Amino acid sequence: MLKLLKNIIKVIEALLMLIVPLIFFYWFLSLIDLDALRPLLAVFESIFSQPLAAIKRIVDIQIEDRGLVIDFTPVILGFVFMGGSIALSYVRKGIKRLELKYDAIKLKKQQEKQEEEMEEKIQQEIQDLKDHKIIYFILKLSKNDSPDSYLYNSEEDFFTQSIVNGLINGTAAQAEKEYNAERYPDFQGENNTFRFLFTDTRKAIEYSKFIKNRVAEINKEVIDQSMKVNYSVGCHCNYDRNNQEVDLDVTSKILALSGDNEVTVSDIFKKKYEAEELEEGIKFAPKGTYLFDSKGICNINNDELEVFKIKID
């Protein structure tokens, strides 16, 4: 509506400015007393007679010079039309400012609506990720030859073997005691893999950090320098345990993507971790604490799943 009104005023403004030169041309013709110009002068008088009459009722300025009467009414009418055109230009600019203000208010409302929708979406995503209550955690411990194993006698002594076995046997007790983990009913899998269930992503990461430090200690303590203990971890999340066998299978495949001394997680685990921090207003982990580096998108059980390596300082 404002745009239409602005366009109408712009047309009227242009017409007034076009009429102004015609009025001054008519006034110039009226000063020339030529019979040839009288028909043209009569045409202008018929066009401007009513506006001129209205001006004369307000002000009538005539000057007589050497028998010639100079009527300044057309000049006044020209300035009136010019002033009207200028006034309309200010009105049009005022409408434009109102239009801009209206557009700004409209844009602000749209932005507020988008922000509300985005906030609702974020809250819904946070709630959805919170509903992923079960974290499937598989730990694998392995004994491998050290890079310089060829320099040492490869026979393991009893003390070294007992240290390694102590590490393996102590993982479950520590996870349950300090990190609120739960043993999966079928806890120990093949090739020294151990399955846990967590409900807090940070507890799972903190337990991974404990494993990292414990393995580093073991590698310092072992007498047999030809052997090195390594660990790898795979993590995944889901709503509940209804499909735990499938979820554990996915977690096992994520574990297979994890290299020695690496923690590899699914994108759902990463998002759940970020949602838990966002809900508490932390938004990001302290710099240098947990960094997620994408290892790429993998096809796991016919689903595309992005996996991340966690750098734990």
Low-confidence region ranges: 148-154, 282-288
Largest sheet, if any? 7 strands, mixed
Structural class label:
alpha+beta
Number of strands: 9
Strand order of the largest sheet: 4-5-3-6-7-9-8
Rg (C-alpha, Å): 44 Å
Number of helices: 7
Beta-strand content: 15-25%
State the helicity in percent bands. 55-70%
- Structural shape: rod-shaped
Residue-averaged pLDDT, rounded?
78
Distance between the termini: 63 Å
Give me the strand/helix succession. HHEEHEHEEHEHEHEE
Any overview of this molecule?
With 313 residues, the protein is an alpha+beta fold. The protein is built from seven helices and nine strands, in the order H-H-E-E-H-E-H-E-E-H-E-H-E-H-E-E. It has helices at 2-31, 38-58, 73-130, 158-178, 201-221, 244-256, 267-279; strands spanning 62-65, 68-71, 134-145, 182-188, 193-198, 227-238, 262-266, 290-300, 303-312. Strands 4-5-3-6-7-9-8 form a seven-stranded mixed sheet, with helices on both faces. Strands 1-2 form a two-stranded antiparallel ribbon. The radius of gyration is 44 Å and the shape is rod-shaped. The model is unreliable at 148-154 and 282-288 (pLDDT under 50).
What's the arrangement of secondary structure elements?
Elements: H1 2-31, H2 38-58, E1 62-65, E2 68-71, H3 73-130, E3 134-145, H4 158-178, E4 182-188, E5 193-198, H5 201-221, E6 227-238, H6 244-256, E7 262-266, H7 267-279, E8 290-300, E9 303-312
Parallel strand pairs: 6-7
Antiparallel strand pairs: 1-2, 3-5, 3-6, 4-5, 7-9, 8-9
Helix pairs in contact: 1-2, 1-3, 2-3, 3-7, 4-5
